[in-house]
Amino acid sequence: xxxxxxxxxxxxxxxxxxxxxxxxxxxxxxxxxxxxxxxxxxxxxxxxxxxxxxxxxxxxxxxxxxxxxxxxxxxxxxxxxxxxxxxxxxxxxxxxxxxxxxxxxxxxxxxxxxxxxxxxxxxxxxxxxxxxxxxxxxxxxxxxxxxxxxxxxxxxxxxxxxxxxxxxxxxxxxxxxxxxxxxxxxxxxxxxxxxxxxxx
Length: 200
Hints:
By secondary structure, this protein is of the alpha/beta class. The chain has helices at 20-33, 50-53, 62-71, 107-115, 132-139, 152-167, 190-197, and strands at 7-13, 38-43, 82-83, 88-91, 121-126, 143-148, 173-177. The protein has a 7-stranded mixed beta sheet with strand order 3-4-2-5-1-6-7, sandwiched between helices.
């Protein structure tokens, strides 16, 4: 009998303020409504907002988990999980943003190994640039979802990112246009956006 393995999805962006965290939370809600067991890992280690958005009281976060794994104090992954509902759990980012650099990106593989058989879907929220942590999330993902807005800087960065992804021979990514942001900033039509960001 095959061991259940969660589908791992990283939600990221190339610019802040495009609705990445909101999308993660909405996806978690959708999957939960489908009866799926969901884990959200907040890998935006310097300014993560998942626990705050869900009004969760954080006692132990990813920093404590990484420290305990490093020092041999780890006993049970349940000690670090925040339970939002019977279908949604959270691994929170550090409360103190200064701790980001004290969490090695190598620990993600160990953490995923402990939770991948416990859930149907694992959603990872990341920071909006190509940090080692973001790259590591991408390496462990079945799918990478990029959120973007109708903004000249966002389009420029997304076009560059598509070139990078293709150079890295990644094909497991999707780009979603968040069209719910301020309509006064709709500089381009959807046709224009598609032609601007495509990699020739």
